[in-house]
Amino acid sequence: MKGLEISKAYYKEFGEPMLKEKFSEIIPYIATGVFGSGSECFGFDDDVSRDHDFDPGFMVLLPGEDLVDRKQEFALERAYAALPKEFMGVKRPAMSPVGGNRRGVIRTAEYFSEKVGALVGALGIGDVVAGHATAEASSSDTAAAGMTDVATNSALWLSTPSYALAEAVNGEVFFDGLGEVTRIREALKSYPDDVRKKKLAGHLLLMAQAGQYNYTRCIQHGENAAAQLAAIEFARNTMSAIFLLNETYEPFYKWSFRAMRNLPKLSLTAELLEYLITTDNEGPSMAAGSGQSAEESGEGSLAQDKYDVVEGIAADVIDELIAQGLTKANCGDLEKHAYSVNDGIADSELRNRHILAGI
């Protein structure tokens, strides 16, 4: 059973009854669930994941102190700490993981501020989650206004790492009395269109520079290590571009390949990128006959094979750009498509910023 399923079962068996029995008066103001850091929040956990920071617990998210005061918070913390220490063979860790609590009692504003920084203010939760709302009327007008601010505040979006945004919207909310946690996550679930285009344009340009241009030049200079760095840079930016084309946040780098394989568009590119960054640049082509040199077999070099893969990936990405109406360029040069995507940004201030402003 996956970690998220274990946590949900733990919540249903122990957490929910505890809250209903001891904290019925504040249940309308709290939210519970599991999301954020940790492979289990993405559904990527396995047996290896359980060696550290793996917890069957859940989050109890609180609004401001005028709705749930510190005394109630402290009582909640004690009640949560008293819940069973082991469930389905998984023990709750005795110490908080590096980076702070991932489970237990957490203030909503503090949690999202830690994840997405200044976007918290743009979402309007400074008033709503801080407590200036009631369970009966949760200031939907303020929340709606906050979402509008977020959609137009490109600087905040561009400065927030994609992995942090991914951790703000992954996992699952089990219960949300005020509905604010759900509204915040909904507002954060994807980039505003202009921001997506700015970031995409930058990654396309770097794909062109690293893969279509610098890789072969490094080979010609005899710089094998530099060629491999170019292949890696191409792969890194290609992955980011593909997540953007799927309108999905790219998670922390160690989960990028795993997440990419689950994407609906261009997921097979993950295997090609893995080939590019794990294969040497010297030696005969993989297509060359056994025991023959590249020249004898009539085939090209391994570096040529890799460049052909780069061009194949570029062609697939361009096809998707065209399918989504993101480019007006009509060629195989990713750089030209990068500038065409940038030209499609509606906001003139963002459009006129450096093309790499979103990277």
Query: Which residues sit in consecutive blocks of at least 5 with pLDDT less than 50?
Result: 131-151, 288-299
Q: Which term fits the overall shape?
A: elongated
Tell me the strand percentage band.
Answer: 5-15%
Distinct helical segment count: 18
**Any idea what the radius of gyration is?**
24 Å
Number of strands: 6
Most strands sheet: 4 strands, mixed
Oligomeric organization of the protein chains = single chain
What does the model show?
This protein has helices at 3-22, 39-42, 70-81, 108-116, 119-122, 125-128, 140-152, 154-158, 162-169, 180-188, 193-220, 224-245, 256-260, 269-278, 294-297, 302-323, 334-343, 348-352, and strands at residues 31-34, 59-62, 86-87, 90-91, 104-107, 172-176. Helix 11 (193-220) packs antiparallel against helix 12, helix 11 runs antiparallel to helix 16 and helix 14 runs antiparallel to helix 16. With 359 residues, it is mainly α. Residues 131-151 and 288-299 have low confidence and may be disordered. The strands form 2 sheets. It has a 4-stranded mixed beta sheet with strand order 5-2-1-6, sandwiched between helices. The protein has a two-stranded antiparallel ribbon with strand order 3-4.
